[in-house]
Each structure stands twice: as structure tokens, then as C-alpha cells.
Amino acid sequence: MSTLPVRAAMVPVTRQVRAYFAPMNRATGAPTIFDPGKYGAFLLEAPPAPWLDLGWVDNFQRFCTTLTEPLRAGIPGSPTTQFRRSLDARIEFDFREWGKLQMALACGSEHMNVLASDPNANAQPSGGTPLAAVPVLPGSTASQINLGVGAVNAFLPGNIVAVDVDYEQQIGYVGTGISAAYVSDPADVNRDANYVRRVTFNVGRVAQQTVTSLLLAQPLLGGAPLSGASVQQVIAFVDREGGSFFQDWSALFVAEEESGGRVCFHYPWLSPTTAIEMSMPLTPTAQPRAVKAFHREEEIEVTKPISSLALHAAFQAMPHVDENDGQTVVCYRSYFPTAMAGLY
Amino acid sequence: MQFTKDSFYMALLQRLVSLNPLQTVTLDGTTRPAIIVAENELVISAQPVSDAFYIEWGTAQMVQGQVGDRGLMEMECVITYHTFGTVQSGVDRGRALAALDMELLSICEPPRTQKRDYTQSPSADLGTSILWTTPNLGKVVGTDAAKNEGLPRGNEGVRLERSASLKVFFFPEVTFL
């Protein structure tokens, strides 16, 4: 043995992985970029905007299924060089905390806010005809929703509210700040003026009331309400097996540094996925491929018969062109050595 | 290894001072934060003081599965505390013990701190962090009362004591060849 005045800390030690997601601009396809040089050392409790903290995740696994293939030459058929035949990667993990974002990402398609229903409305599995919306007054912010004297009494502290504009028969992505769904035909959504509020990410919990406004416990994800926005009470969240929309987001995962430096995994573009084929067919006559079962929830036993429920999520990593060299990549792994660590 | 012990103690001491500056004890005529490393105190026959955290260190070994010259080690740590409550009758001793429990859990978060060399002033950063598990709060032991067979744990005792155990992980100041 020998003694060193300072230990080289080259073994990253971590306890858990924390997930952060940021919306993509669905209209342009532009992701949210995590620049390690600008944001690398951020406090895990206070991620840089627009990254949203989705809490600790379990069973975080990164799968690389990128295939490389050698080019062979000569009589012995020795490899002379190789190339990447396909670029393919996915990740899987369990959200231990449930919320609007976690459910939407784990499910992968449109995520519905169940609006408080008119008692006389027909029953619908994602919520029937809702109670009338209350218009938002000018001057509102992402944390304070001005409704006016009297109107504010339609809500109580503790209520969940959806704050967004009416659906106006447009075709395209809907949802303030974050694209929550895509409408290709107004008839598909029954030309329902409440449709945007049924899917919007602009939801909040009423923490307090003033005479004229609602004060929210957390700011609206999509930012301040747009002109013409209204508020409706949300009773529950619903996701569905099926649907045509994909929740495409940018993602960042941080292996919390206990000792030895921070490791981050940045995926500029993740698209939700579920069951996967166990193996790729290598020939056109290959047998039907096995499909790995996909569990939507994982039960984590506390002690029998008590268990907690985790949301199982899986994503396909989609390509991104790195402007620094024009290479097409799907994820970035960054490492921030701790102070005085050896570098090799 | 001593750097690990010192760093753990200093982290908890600073957090306790920040969390509850009134949580103090008087030892040898000196008033200080109520967290004490038993092996650093004078050897006297006095009883431990109440409402204070006593740190004791146990076995240390390499963590299984760690290889190479930068092996991670673990060391057992036991933190013991007791209370008589805050009133003469002692009827709030359970609440006082619960408050100590919460204080301990609070000062153990976040479960890591820089490893520093406190043998020099100012202390020197040793380049790594130490980390530890969440304290496992052991059973409550009640003493100083007639044993009540109907309450086998003795929680009716006027002196309630608990030991919390945890493991501290660290890179030693040694390169293993």
C-alpha cells in the first residue's frame, strides 16, 4: 500500500437517478438542449428552465441496439473496417412519483384532464360535458389567475384547475406552452370548446384564494394564460391505452453524485414506446419475432399486502444532428469529474 | 479513516446548529451543540447527558464488489440518544424522543458531505465525498421504572433511549495495490 495526500475520485458513486423533461417545439421539431457547459452543475432541486423535475426514478436502464457490421476483405475474410448499420437506442425506467407529467410520459399518448362534469351529462370514460368554464381576466400570471369578484368562488383551495384557451376549430397542435394533442379534424373532438382544457398541461392546484384571484401552489407548466383563456375544475387525470398522439419530449437524467462526480444522460428527443420485439430479423425468412411483455405499472412491495405503484415508462431515442460536427446521434452521456479527481 | 469520522461529525454538528441552535449540552463546563463523539470525550464515569446525540463507530470493511486500487469502504456508525422529556412529570418523554428522531433524520440529509482534513486550519478538501445510509431507528428502551409485565418494552420508563444505526461509505486515504 502507499498513501496519497489527495484521493483520486474516479469511481462515480450514485444512489438514485433523477429525471428531468422539457417540451419539444412540436411544430418545428426543435428539442430542448441541455448544454453541460452552461448547466452541468445545476442544483438538482432547481433545474434550469425549461427543464421540469419529475423526481427520482427506479430501474433506470439504457439499451443500445445499434448494430455495427464489419467490412471484410481478402481470402481469410478479415475485417478491414466497420460501420454502424443502424442507430437504435431506448430507455426504460419507473416513475416512483405520480403526476400529470409522469402519467402522460409513461402512457405516451394524449393525457386527459377529467373536467368537473355537469351532473346531467352523459357518462364518458374521460369525462363528459363539463361545467361551464370561467373566463380568465387580464393581468393573470402562471401563478395567479384573476377571475374577478364572485367568479372566483367557483373554485376552492385544494381544487385542481385547467387553464387554457377554448378550442376554435383549428387543425394542429393544441395546448398553451406545451403541445398536448394534435387535432387533424375538428369533428374528431366534437368541435368541443373545452377540448384544449381536456388535454392541456396548464394545470395547477389552488393553494389560496383572494377576493378576485386564485393563487396556485405550482406555476402553470405552459406559462401565463393566453388572452381568451378560461378555467375549469379538474377532478382526475386519465390516460388511455391507444390514441394516435405521441408525447415527444427532451429528457435529461442525472445520476446523483454521492462521490466521484456527476453523470448525466441527455436525450434531445424521446418518443414513448411500449412492447418491443426481442430480436431483429436477420433474413427475410426469419421466424415471427417474440415480443417482450410490457408492464404499465410496477408493484413495489412495502410489506405484504402493502405495495406502492410505479409508472413504468419506455422511450425510443430519436435522432438529433449535433451542430458541432453534423453527426447524427441519439443521446449524450456527460461526466463532470469531482474536484481533484484523476482524469485517466 | 479519521477524516471520514471527522467529516461526518462536522457535517451533523453544523446541520444541528443550523436546525436547532438551542439543542445544546454542557460538558465539562462548556456549552456546545448536542452532538458528541464518544471516543473523543474524557473517560469519566458520568452517565451520558440527555437530549444529545452520541456517535460511536463500529466495524469497517471494503464494500463487496468493489475492485481496484480505489476501493470503497463502509463503516458502521451508531448514534444513541435518550430523554426524560421536558417536564418534571416526564409525560412528554415520548414526544421528546420523537423530536430527537426527527432531528436526527433531518441532520442526516442530504446523506453526504465533502471529506475534509480537519487536522489543519482551515480544513482542506480531500477531493471526495463521504455518503451514508438513512439511519435505521432501533427499538425504544425504557428504563428507570418498575418493570411492567404488561408493557414488555418498558416504554413507561422515565428514561427513553434509542439507538440509530447507519453505514458510512468512503474512499480511504490509501491506494490498495
Summed up:
By secondary structure, chain A is mainly beta. Chain A has 3 helices and 24 strands.
How would you explain this protein's 3D organization?
The complex is a heterodimer of chains A (344) and B (177). Chain A is mainly β. Chain A contains three helices and 24 strands. Chain A has helices at residues 36-39, 100-107, 195-199, and strands at residues 2-3, 17-23, 52-64, 67-73, 78-86, 89-95, 111-115, 134-135, 144-146, 160-165, 172-174, 181-183, 203-209, 213-216, 229-239, 249-255, 262-272, 276-277, 291-292, 297-303, 306-317, 320-321, 328-329, 332-336. In chain A, strands 7, 8, 9, 10, 13, 14 and 15 form a seven-stranded antiparallel β-sheet that branches. Chain A has a six-stranded antiparallel beta barrel with strand order 2-3-6-21-17-16. The radius of gyration of chain A is 24 Å and the shape is globular. Chain A starts with a strand and ends in an 8-residue tail after the last strand. Mean pLDDT of chain A is 90; it is low at 1-7. With 177 residues, chain B is an alpha+beta fold. Chain B has a single domain (2-170), classed as 2-Layer Sandwich (STM4215-like). Chain B contains two helices and eleven strands. In chain B, the strands form two sheets. In chain B, strands 3, 4, 5, 6, 7, 8, 9 and 10 form an eight-stranded mixed β-sheet that branches. The mean pLDDT of chain B is 88. Classes of the chains: A mainly beta (344), B alpha+beta (177). Chain A binds chain B through residues 1-4, 6-11, 13, 15, 257-260, 338-341, and chain B through 66, 68, 70, 72, 111-112, 125-131, 169-177. Strand 1 (2-3) of chain A pairs antiparallel with strand 11 (174-175) of chain B, so a sheet runs across the interface.
Task: Name the largest protein-protein interface in this structure.
Answer: A-B, 20 and 22 residues
Morphology call of chain B: globular
- Beta-strand residue fraction of chain B: 35-45%
Low-confidence stretches of chain A: 1-7
| Main CATH class of chain B | Alpha Beta
